[in-house]
Amino acid sequence: AAPRAPAGARSSRIYSSSDADVTPPTLLYPQMPAPPIALGGAETDINTMSVLVTEAGEVEHVQLVSAPKRMTDMMILSGAKNWIFAPASRDGEAVRYRLILSWPTTR
C-alpha cells in the first residue's frame, strides 16, 4: 500500500537523496521512454531538473537547473508539471521530496 500523508498540518520539511532513511518517490505517469543514443561524433550535454514532489505524489515545483540546450528540454520541463508519483516515504509516512533528474541531450 502507498504511504499516506499524515493527518493535520503539512510539514515544511523537504527531503532529498541525502536523507538515507527516506524512500524516494517513484514516477507512475507518464512512463518515460529510454533516452536517445548519441550518434558517433555528436556532442552530448547533460540537462538537470529539480522536481518537488508533494506528500500526495503531485509535482509542486519544477526548475531546470542547467540551461536548456534544445526545445525538447523546455517541453520536458513543461510536461513534468503533470507527472504523477508514488510519494516518498519516511517511517511509513508520505513526505515532500526534492528529486533531481538528469538526462543526456545531443547537439
Name a few traits of the molecule.
107 residues; 39% strand; mainly beta; two-stranded antiparallel ribbon; five-stranded mixed β-sheet; 1 helix
Strand percent estimate: 35-45%
What kind of oligomer do you see? Answer: single chain
Please tally the β strands and state the result. 7
| Arithmetic mean of pLDDT | 82
SSE order, as H and E?
Answer: EEEEHEEE
Helix content: under 10%
Contiguous uncertain segments of 5+ residues: none
**What structural category characterises the helix and strand content?**
mainly beta
Tell me about the biggest sheet? 5 strands, mixed
Termini gap: 43 Å
Tell me the number of helical segments per DSSP (H or I, 4 or more residues long): 1
User: Which word captures the global form?
Assistant: elongated
Q: What radius of gyration results from the CA coordinates?
A: 16 Å
What does the model show?
The structure is a single chain. The protein is mainly β and 107 residues long. Helices cover 9% and strands 39% of the residues. Strands 1, 3, 4, 6 and 7 form a five-stranded mixed sheet that branches. A two-stranded antiparallel sheet has the order 2-5. The longest helix is centred in the C-terminal third of the chain and has 10 residues. It is elongated. The chain starts with 13 loop residues before the first strand and ends with a strand.
Write a brief structural summary.
With 107 residues, the chain is mostly beta strands. 9% of the residues lie in helices and 39% in strands.
